[in-house]
Amino acid sequence: MIKFFPLFFLMLSCSSNAPKEIFDITYTLIFKSEMGGTEKSGHVLIQNNETYIQFIESLKLDESEYANFLKVDFKKKDVLVLYQGQKSSGGYAIDIESLKNENHTIIVKKKEVAPKKGEITTSVLTSPYCIALIPKCKNVVIE
């Protein structure tokens, strides 16, 4: 038993330089709107507090809406913003359907909603977007 102790201790003291595995694949939607997104569809991954504050300030929201923006622990979470792009009417929305972890990459399956054919909608330009907290990661793929 004494002969195995140094080997056991050595095994515990070694560290690996392999990328940290992402086990938590939960997300929290913190804000969603039909107005205020960008003209083109796409996404933005925010990984630090300074960029997050600049982003929030750029939204030009009413003060009552700031309560939706929680303080983010950027050691554990990132902020993902999904944009649907500019649309010619109401009835559009974008959301996250699911997250998957594959080889240290978070794969985000987005869900886009459009008005049904013949459905009455508002005649206004919209640009839907949503903001979510996702697990900290190096790579994000949007499907």
Shape: globular
Provide the gyration radius in Å.
Answer: 21 Å
Sheet/helix structural class:
alpha+beta
Alpha-carbon distance between the termini? 53 Å
Q: How many H/I helices?
A: 2
- Total strand count, please? 7
Poorly predicted residue ranges: 1-19
For the biggest β-sheet, the strand order reads 1-6-3-2
Largest sheet: 4 strands, antiparallel
What is the ordering of alpha helices and beta strands?
HEEHEEEEE
Q: Give the fraction of residues assigned to helices.
A: 10-25%
Task: Work out the strand percent.
Answer: 25-35%
Mean pLDDT: 84
Walk me through the structure.
There is one protein chain. This protein is α+β, with helices and mostly antiparallel strands and 143 residues long. The protein is 14% helix and 34% strand. The protein has two helices and seven strands, in the order αββαβββββ. It has helices at residues 4-13, 49-58; strands at 28-33, 42-46, 77-83, 93-102, 105-113, 129-135, 139-142. The strands form two sheets. It has a four-stranded antiparallel sheet. The radius of gyration is 21 Å and the shape is globular. It starts with a helix and ends with a strand. Mean pLDDT is 84; it is low at 1-19.
